[in-house]
């Protein structure tokens, strides 16, 4: 007899959406902004809005704001774009997006089945490990040559690479389609 994960209440899941969205924005913003109380409170509020309405436009707004904050930090304030920081922000945005997508499909009073959680955790682990490996490989290959890449170009190249990987993973996850355009096994 195998034990499975218990289902997770949707409100607990939404609190994780809030935490990931808030953390991504806090990590991306300049250190000076994190020092005062105003910007962390705004980050927490934006994260809360994404958790309260995960199927609305707040998730996209939070993610765009996070990328803009990182651009402001690197290009505007001159902080060097660290590969580790870029990886951390990317992983937090990936977690936030994935968790918000699940939360958008589950009513707040429901429980998320263990099968969905296990599948999502497995996929997130694979993507996170692959992202870390690619980041380490690129950092090792570029070495000091990576310092010659302008911050804005690094952000654009990183975003393009993330989108390409997401597209490949999405296409790989789709099964063969039936003649009516639906995937097999889903009615």
Q: Summed up, what is this model?
A:
With 187 residues, this protein is mostly helical. The chain contains 7 helices and 2 strands. Helix 1 (10-28) runs parallel beside helix 4 (58-76).
List the main descriptive attributes of the protein structure presented here:
187 residues, mainly alpha, two-stranded antiparallel sheet
Order of helices and strands: EHHHHHEHH
Write down the overall mean pLDDT. Answer: 81
Helix content: over 70%
What is the strand arrangement across the widest sheet? 1-2
Structural class: mainly alpha
Explain this structure to me?
The protein is mainly α. It has helices spanning 10-28, 31-35, 38-52, 58-76, 83-105, 114-142, 151-173, and strands at 8-9, 111-112. The chain has a two-stranded antiparallel sheet with strand order 1-2. The longest helix is centred in the C-terminal third of the chain and has 29 residues, at 114-142. The chain is globular, with a radius of gyration of 18 Å. It starts with 7 loop residues before the first strand and ends in a 14-residue tail after the last helix.
How would you summarize the topology of this molecule?
Elements: E1 8-9, H1 10-28, H2 31-35, H3 38-52, H4 58-76, H5 83-105, E2 111-112, H6 114-142, H7 151-173
Helix pairs in contact: 1-3, 1-4, 1-5, 3-4, 5-6
């Amino acid at each position: 007899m195998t034990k499975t994960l218990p289902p997770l209440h949707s409100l607990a899941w939404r609190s994780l959406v809030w935490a990931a969205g808030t953390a991504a924005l806090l990590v991306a913003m300049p250190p000076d902004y994190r020092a005062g109380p105003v910007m962390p409170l705004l980050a927490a509020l934006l994260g809360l809005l994404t958790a309260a309405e995960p199927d609305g436009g707040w998730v996209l707004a939070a993610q765009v704001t996070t990328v803009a904050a990182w651009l402001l930090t690197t290009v505007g304030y001159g902080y060097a774009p660290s590969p580790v920081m870029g990886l951390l922000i990317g992983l937090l945005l990936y977690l936030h997006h994935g968790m918000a997508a699940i939360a958008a499909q589950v009513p707040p009073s429901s429980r998320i089945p263990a099968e969905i959680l296990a599948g999502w955790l497995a996929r997130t682990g694979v993507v996170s490990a692959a992202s870390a490996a690619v980041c380490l490989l690129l950092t090792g290959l570029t070495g000091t040559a990576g310092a010659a890449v302008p911050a804005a170009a690094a952000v654009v190249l990183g975003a393009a690479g993330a989108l390409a990987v997401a597209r490949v993973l999405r296409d790989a996850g789709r099964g063969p389609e039936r003649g009516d355009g639906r995937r097999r096994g889903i009615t």
